[in-house]
Amino acid sequence: MAKNQDTVSVLAFEKKLVPSDAYMYGTQWDDRSLATPLSLMEKSVRGTISNRLKAAIKNDPVKLNAEVEKANLQTVDSCALAPEQDTLKLHFTLKVLGGVQEPSACNNVLFKQSYASAVRDYIGKDGFQELGKRYALNIANARFLWRNRVGAENIEVQVNALNKDTKQSWVFDATQFSTKHFNYDEPKVVELGQRIAQALASEDDFLMLEVNCFVQIGKAQEVYPSEELVLDKGKGKKSKILYAVKEIAAMHSQKVGNALRSIDTWYPEFDDVETSAGPIAIEPYGAVTNLGKAYRTPKDKQDFYTFFDKWARGAELERIEDEHFVMAILVRGGVFGESDK
Please, what is the Cα angle at 258 between 15 and 173, to 5 degrees? Predict the structure, then answer.
C-alpha cells in the first residue's frame, strides 16, 4: 500500500490504439471493383412466446395454451447483402500512438519519475515487440469481425500503412490464423507487429493503418453491425436497433478496439480447459461481461492495480508476462488515481 506522501490521486492515460468505426459494404468475391454501402432494413415479425413462465401458467395446460397463442409482435433492424452479392467488405482505420512514457495527468512528481523509469526499462527489454505482435495477429485473424467471422468460406485482410514517408502493405488470409492463441511467427505478421511496436515505443510518433477486410459469406446472407444499447425500451417502437453512420451499417469503434486488445492469455485460468475463456480483452480486473466473471481478482493479486502500484514505483514483477499486461492496460488508457483519504 502506498504511503500517504506517495499517493497519486490524479492519474490518467490516453489510449494509444485509436480505431475508427468500421463501415460495411457489399461486393462479390471474384469482382470487388464495385462495393456498395449496406443499409439497415426494418422488419416487423410475429414471434412466439418463448420466455420462462410462472409456475401457475406452465403447470396449467389451459393457461399455457392461452399464453402461447398470444402474438409476440416485434419491429427490428436487420442488415444483409444484396441478392447478387456474396461478400462483406469491412473498412476501418487504426491510429497507433506513442507517448506512453507520459501520463496525460499526474499530480505526483516523484511517482511520475519512477513510472517513466519503469517504462524506459520495459522498452529497453522488450520494445513493445510482444504486444505489437499480438495486436498485429488480431488484425491478421480478423477477430474484429466478431459474429461476421463465423461460417465464412474465405476471409482476406488488406492492411495499408498510410504514413507518407513509410508506406507499406500487407495481405493476410485470416482463415490461416486461430483466434485462440498467439503462437505464430509468420513473417508478415511479425513485420506488421514491429511497425506497431515501433510507434508504441516512440515518444511522439504514430502509425496510421487502413484495414479492408473481405468476407465471403454467401449471396444475400445476413451481416451483423453493432447493436445499439436501448436504455428505455418501453418508449421505443423497435426491440432491436442496429448502428449506422449516414445510412451506412457499421460497427462501433469500441467493438473494434475490444477485439484488437483481446490479447490477455496471461491470466491464471487461461490454460484450464474447463474455465478458460480464451484470449480476453485487456481489462484491469480481467472482466468478461458476457460470462459475468472477473479473471483477475485483487484477492489473487493478479489485477492491474496490484501489479502497477509495485512496478511503477520501481519494484520488479515476477514475470515478464505481468509487465506485458500492465503495459497493455496503459495502451488501453484509463483513469487510475488512488484515493487520497
Answer: 115
Other residues' Cβ atoms within 10 Å of the Cβ of residue 299: 8
pLDDT band of 4, cuts 50, 70, 90: very low
Output the CA torsion sign for 145, 22, 332, 229.
negative
Q: Say which amino acid occupies 62.
A: V
Beta carbons within 10 angstroms of residue 122's beta carbon: 21
- Cα(49)–Cα(96) distance, integer angstroms: 48
The cell numbers describing 199, all together, are 510507434
- Does residue 132 register a pLDDT over 90? yes
Paired strand residues for 184? none
pLDDT, tens digit, 9 for 90 and up, residues 209-252 = 999 999 999 999 999 999 998 776 555 678 889 999 999 999 99
pLDDT higher than threshold 80 for residue 5: no
Number of residues in the chain? 341
On the question of pLDDT at 90 being above 60, the answer is yes
Closest CA to 223 of 87, 316, 319: 87
3-state SS of the chain is: CCCHHHCCCCEEECCCEEECCEEEEEECCCCCCCCEECCCEEEEEEECCCCCCCHHHHCCHHHHHHHHCCCEEEEEEECECCCCCCEEEEEEEEEEECCCCCCCEECCHHHHHHHHHHHHHHHHHCCCHHHHHHHHHHHHCCHHHHHHHCCCCEEEEEEEECCCCCCEEEEEEHHHCCCCCCCCCCHHHHHHHHHHHHHHHCCCCEEEEEEEEEEECCCCCECCCCECCCCCCCCCCCCECECEECCEEEECHHHHHHHHCCCECCCCCCCCCCCCCCCECCCCCCEEHHHCEECCCHHHCCCHHHHHHHHCCCCCCCCHHHHHHHHHHHHHCEECCCCCC
